[in-house]
Amino acid sequence: MAKVKGAIVINIERCKGCEVCVDVCPESVIAMNKNVNTKGYHYAMVTNEDCTGCTNCAVVCPDGVITVYRVKVPTEVV
Amino acid sequence: MKELRLMKGNEALAEAAIRAGADGYFGYPITPQSEILEYLMAEKPYETTGMVVLQAESEVAAINMVYGGASCGKKCWTSSSSPGISLKQEGISYMAGSELPGIIVNVVRGGPGLGTIQPSQADYFQATKGGGHGDYRLLVLAPASVQEMADFIPLGFDLAFKYRNPVMILTDGVIGQMMEKVELPEFTPRWTEEEIIKMSGDWATTGKTPDRERNIISSLILDSAKQEKHVKKLGLKYTAMEADEVRYEKFQCDDAEYLFVAFGSTARICQKSVDIARARGIKVGLLRPITLYPFPTIPIHELSNQVKGMLVVEMNLGQMVEDVRLAVNGKVQVEHFGRCGGMIPNPDEIVKNLVSKIIGG
Amino acid sequence: MAVITREDIIKPENLVYKRTSLLVDCALSYCPGCGHGTAHRMLMEVIEEMGIQSKTIGVAPVGCSVLAYEFLDIDVQQAAHGRAPALATAIKRLMPEKYVFTYQGDGDLAAIGTCETIHACNRGENFVIIFINNGIYGMTGGQMAPTTLPGMKASTCPYGRDTEIMGNPLKITELVATLPGTCYVTRQSVHTPGNVRKTKRALRKAFEYSYAKKGLSFVEIVSNCNSGWKMTPVQSNKWMEENMFPFFPLGDIKVPAAE
User: Fold this and answer.
1) Is B220 in Cβ contact with C78 (below 8 Å)?
2) Boundaries of every domain in chain A
3) CATH number of C26-250
4) Interface mutation target, options A5, A23, A59, chain C, most CBs of C under 10 Å
5) Per residue in C28-75, pLDDT tens?
6) pTM of the model
7) Å from B305 to nearest chain C CA?
């Protein structure tokens, strides 16, 4: 029995703060930063470690700013 | 040995294009040039040389097909007559802006509007002064015989690719419809993909390979400083054309005291007028511009030091006469005699107008 | 048992999704949340997966995606407004071994370019048309489009589209599906992960069918224009589901006979 654990990397300078990724994340991992990038957009950020690497956020991101990584891990890992 | 045939001007154009290794013709029927598309469809060059022939849904589509093909480095051309050429102007402007080679044939008919299907030279301004929007020029060739209809296709492609600029062949229903003996050019094979990449691979959309950056065909430059630079670069091409591509023919000019200036079919009529006038003791010559742009400004200016006056004969209300006056710059009298609406001037009335408007009495 | 940290996961061998390198590494010119970016990315993912970068010629329109050539790392021609299918016709006929597509918006394809669209479809030209329908003229600032819904507001119908005065929206996708020259006609969207994946599959099929000389493939992507619609991106996607999809229902409209 293994479960998956993921992580996303957000290119914050290319993020336009549209929030579409926030809406499609099944684990509510993403929120918008109250700070802005150099273009003046609030950018997406990771808020917890529940990411499963499902790629939903990266797939819908209009600007393609999200990169996704995923590993299979044995169960009962912290 | 070269092949001799009796052909209509429109057919000679079409046959010459097959022989010149053209890759694509895109047209739409309109009188008096429909024989071009008809001839090509009957000849089926797509089964011999591989040249694509397509009857488009409109003149607009046809010129944009030429744009698409030219962007791939292919030899493409289209033809139409005045109202259809008006429709093509947007595409022609885009071709000039995107620096694309190609040939546009205008078998001119009388206008404005739907006008008449009879011959005219009323599209001189449109051909030489822009026609479409923006700062650009077409290289304009004006054939005066069926032979030149055939010859100007390979010449047109050479010039179009030399300058990466559209070339217009400006003719009319007289030349398009009349039959004459024509010596057809030898067959030139169509360029292979390898030849196109070698020749035009630095700009043509032939498919981005790992060894080069992507090629983009576009006339959009939103940055004003860059747009100015681009337009000035186009301007340098036009300056080079003016220096190197002026073509004209002189007829009995050596001892001339008066001069006819006429192009295309009207120039042929003026040859007869020269004979009639000389039989009456009037020493008149003829200068026939072969390129309407670039215009033979210098040879006309030089003749203004020799002759007492010039009569510009055209089938319009007076268009090329403006360029002749600019060339002469007030040195001698320049008058215009024109017929329009599809009427063709006859040699006698041309001589009569030379006498009444220039010589006097 | 060891704790797996974020740093343990973010390693090249664990990569599952990244922006395709066939999208040029620059910021896209589109508004935040606009579907154009996603449509571009799916298109380039398909070209990457099919390994056809050197065999693909694209045609960009006039409209918001006029600058598409800045973002797509392939050879692209930029067409006059509405004329993309004419360019593509010539490209494909002169270079039949290439994959050819046009990328057009609703004004370009279904208003000024209706003639070129319908005739290219009807002739069965073997290229792909990608049609982005967001019911508005985005680039010029939100004017009424041929696909603006009845009652929908735009700057040239500020009280909503009155069909008595302004005529009806055009379902050009259903129209081209009736023509013998089209082989594959489908309507998709890119507003949810599932829809994005379906759009990608549709694009791949479109490229394959047209390359196999089955005819013209037409992929409409119903998209949002949150700037033109004056909503947030998330609101606009919801509005699209509630209002656009009933009028422009998603799914295949025509598939090749063999399927």
Assistant:
1) yes
2) 2-72
3) 3.40.50.970
4) A59
5) 999 999 999 999 999 999 999 999 999 999 999 999 999 999 999 999
6) 0.96
7) 48
